Amino acid sequence: MSQDHLKEDKEPDPYTQQVLESGLSRRSFLARAAGGAAAAGLFGLSGAPALAAGARAAKTPNPGPDAAFGKSADGGATLSFLPKPRPIHDREIKRTLTFDVVVVGAGASGVPAALSAAENGAKVAVIQKAPFALSQGNTGAGVDLATSEKAGVEALVARLIADSNHRCNPKLVRQWAYHSGEAVKWVVDRARQGGSPVVDQGSGAQRAILKVNGYGMGYVTSFFGPKPYTTGDGMRALAKTAEKAGVRFFYNMPAVQLVQNKAGEILGVIAKDPDGQYVKFLATKGVILATGDYQNNKAMSDYFIPDVKHLGRKQLDRNGDGFVLAYWAGGVFEPIGHTKMLHDFDAGPASMCDMPFLAVDRKGRRFVNETVEMSLMNNYLKDPGNAGHYSQIFDADYMTQAAKWPGKLVPPEGLKHYMPDDPGAKKGVFASQVNTHVADTIEDLARKIEADPATLAATVKRYNELVASGKDSDFGKPSDRLVPVLKAPFYGIHRRVRLSAICSGMLVDENHQALDADGRPIKGLFLVGNLGGGFYGGVDYPLTVFGLSLGRCYTFGYLTGRHVAKL
Amino acid sequence: MNRITARQWAAAPLAALLVLMGAASAAAAAPQGKADRMSKHADKGITCAQCHGKTGKKAVVPKKQCLTCHGETKDLAARTADVKPNNPHENRHLGTEADCNRCHHEHAASENLCLPCHAFNFQVP
Ligand SMILES: Cc1cc2nc3c(=O)[nH]c(=O)nc-3n(C[C@H](O)[C@H](O)[C@H](O)COP(=O)(O)OP(=O)(O)OC[C@H]3O[C@@H](n4cnc5c(N)ncnc54)[C@H](O)[C@@H]3O)c2cc1C
């Protein structure tokens, strides 16, 4: 960590203070619910009027499936997506196992956390819901301190804080900046030992951010690819290295409850084995939850991030289990309005996704100044009709017309890999997700991209008029980004942005230890990956540094595993 | 319909309670010995108890129960190895261990879990 920022503050930082004030914890919910009408007003303001129904629902036996709230056995209210755990008695426990560190979830943060703890001398168990380690994505980013100017690192930190609309915890961003190079290198090395073909793409993958405010930067960029090879495969290779280091993996074993004593300390986890029986895992040093986000929990999603209600999901089984566990242990959710990540790097070349070709919505209408990046397009396509669908349209001359634009053009031969109708072999893509098309007329292209032919023809006609005039009087796109769509064949990439990840989580300190509603560390409980909070804060996940999300997951897994092992 | 007392309500987690209430109303509505809704198994003469046991509780049948008749998951995967474009019973997300209930529904139309992400257009029986 940077020496300049090591000074210990007694007061919680502004980020933590804000989460303590406006986040959701068991205690804050009880307090609000007890406030009755006052509570309804409070939540009404923040866009969750359903809470008012909560107080009523508690009195009626059958609130129906739409009621968001019920009342728990201890008399305290509970949100429906946060069911109060039923006590599991000792006689129901089939067996009890004791470790130093128990990691829950074998994904991008959990597997590194487990291996890191083992390398630091701990006896480690990983309990994983799925039949093997599971994660997604390819690229993970870290800062190479050896080739970066100190001022550059700080400038990058400032840039990332700005990307988060200044709503994140700067301490965590700085922690990533100063430790990620070491951590990502370590992941690459250890995954390779497990047989992964992972490579370090270094700074080449981060061309757009080699200078920040004029200061030089260097990067470590892990790449688990090309597709269909992903970080999921990578984490399975890393798990092999971890097993060799003595980590025990328990698969098909979802964690269902934390073991907590009266003082509030976490002593372990109870999981359900494949026979439906409970197994208790005691953790003498700590439990690290690494269960990922909650995108497949509809009620939780609708509550914390209503923006994504109509958008598809790219993951399975991310039900927010870890959130429920941490909430009942006293943890605090970041306030409503969580940061989201929505992409489609599969329909067509990733390198062309931000190129400002004519863009049309699902019907075929122009809807935006196309200099808006793909990662932000979701904000225009949230409605149930568009549901994240849009298309990039260009003509036969795209290789010359767009040659000077930022991004990297893929020539027509290369585009064939992305064309479901092209009979050729598909390399470096998910064949079942490609969605690029070519046609001799705009109407035919419209049919292929599933837009309305007449609407698309009218849109193209209007666009060509604007291009000819040299001024985009409809959306104000700069004139050097205006190229016509005139010459056959015509191309269309039908992108469909779906939710990749929700990257807000629950309140942690710099050790990634969960904090309670008073801002005090919950002994024995650590949260990493997307379950951890504080690293983001904006509406959308930034692509400033490519692979920040996986880079963060590896880094915080690596640091937390080591920290807990040494307790 | 069975009465649920205020105490039971307060003690039961919401999800469990909804299942419970569903069970109570279904039991009341269904003619004895017959499934309440469509059942592909019942059409073949298989009784409720063969899947659900004798307790009479309406609940999702554990995967283990499916396998007692349909065989080991690995064998199932081998039988569907030629399904195009991908073997649904052996995939990169869940291996051979997907819960049968995710796609195959007994009392409702089955669904293809792959579809939201992939163009795997097979019909799920
Ligand atoms: C298609 C796609 C592409 C992406 N590409 C990139 C990319 O290139 N670069 C990038 O930086 N980010 C990318 N991301 C985002 C990145 O994958 C995630 O942010 C990251 O994987 C999150 O890591 P995690 O450890 O928090 O959770 P995950 O990696 O999701 O792991 C969570 C694990 O916990 C397990 N689990 C859940 N509940 C329980 C339970 N109750 N008990 C036990 N285990 C449980 C799950 O099975 C899972 O294995 C992509 C995401 C998607 C969907």
Task: Describe the structure in your own words.
The complex is a heterodimer of chains A (567) and B (125). Chain A has 16 helices and 23 strands. Chain A has 567 residues and is an alpha+beta fold. In chain A, helix 7 packs across helix 16 (548-565). The model of chain A is unreliable at 36-75 (pLDDT under 50). With 125 residues, chain B is mainly alpha-helical. The chains are: A alpha+beta (567), B mainly alpha (125). Chains A and B meet through loops of A and helix 1 and helix 2 of B. Bound molecules: flavin-adenine dinucleotide.
**In terms of structural class, how would the helical and strand content of chain B be classed?**
mainly alpha
Q: How many β-strands of chain A, per DSSP?
A: 23
Shape of chain B: globular
Order of helices and strands of chain B: HHHHHH
> What helical percentage do the residues of chain B reach?
25-40%
Largest sheet of chain A: 8 strands, mixed
Oligomer: heterodimer
Number of helical regions of chain A: 16
Strand proportion of chain A, as a percent range, falls in 15-25%
Q: Largest interface, per-chain counts?
A: A-B, 33 and 27 residues
- Cα-atom radius of gyration of chain A: 25 Å
β-strand amount of chain B: under 5%
Q: Uncertain runs of chain A with pLDDT below 50, 5 residues or more?
A: 36-75
Would you spell out the secondary-structure blueprint of this structure?
The complex is a heterodimer of chains A (567) and B (125).
Chain A: H1 14-22, E1 24-25, H2 26-34, H3 37-45, H4 50-57, E2 69-71, E3 77-79, E4 93-104, H5 110-119, E5 124-127, E6 139-143, H6 150-163, H7 170-193, E7 199-200, E8 211-212, E9 215-216, E10 219-223, H8 231-244, E11 248-250, E12 255-260, E13 266-272, E14 278-289, H9 298-304, H10 321-328, E15 332-333, E16 340-343, E17 358-360, H11 374-377, E18 389-394, H12 398-401, H13 412-415, E19 436-439, H14 442-448, H15 453-469, E20 490-496, E21 498-502, E22 513-515, E23 521-527, H16 548-565
Chain B: H1 6-11, H2 14-29, H3 40-43, H4 48-52, H5 63-70, H6 73-79
The structure holds flavin-adenine dinucleotide.
